[in-house]
Design a protein that fits this description.
This protein has a domain at 2-60: Arc Repressor Mutant, subunit A (Orthogonal Bundle). The chain has 4 helices and 3 strands, in the order H-E-H-H-E-E-H. The protein has helices at 2-10, 15-22, 26-38, 83-89, and strands at 13-14, 42-44, 57-60. It has a 3-stranded antiparallel beta sheet with strand order 1-3-2. Helix 1 crosses helix 2. The longest helix has 13 residues, at 26-38. The radius of gyration is 25 Å and the shape is elongated. It comes from Cupriavidus necator (Alcaligenes eutrophus). This is MarR family transcriptional regulator. Residues 43-80 are annotated as: Disordered.
């Protein structure tokens, strides 16, 4: 969103100016640009006719962002299971606490 907001507010700009305008780190900008280009929301000016260079400006394509995906987390058993690790390390436990499990 920071990337798109910056391009909307200030217009097309090269990657180095976009990094400063959006206040994203280099890694964040790389991930955001990759996603935005894959979704067709952002493109390099002149793309696909010419390969992008360091000062090629990035532009909004006019395509809207797709709606966010809803991800349902998998149900988790919140109890930690250290028994397999203790078995591998050969650490003895009281017999009442031991459970059998497949290796």
């Amino acid at each position: 969103m920071a990337l798109i907001s910056s391009l909307r507010a200030k217009g097309p700009m090269p990657r180095h100016r976009l990094a400063a305008a959006s206040r994203l780190s280099a890694a964040e900008l790389t991930r955001a640009l990759k996603s935005a280009r894959q979704m067709g929301v952002v493109a390099y000016e002149g793309e696909p006719d010419s390969p992008p260079e360091a000062d090629t400006r990035l532009v909004l394509t006019g395509r809207p962002l797709p709606p966010p995906r809803r991800v349902t987390p998998a149900p988790r058993d919140n109890k930690p299971h250290f028994e397999p690790l203790l078995d591998v390390w050969g650490i003895a436990r009281p017999a009442a606490q031991r459970r059998g499990h497949a290796s």
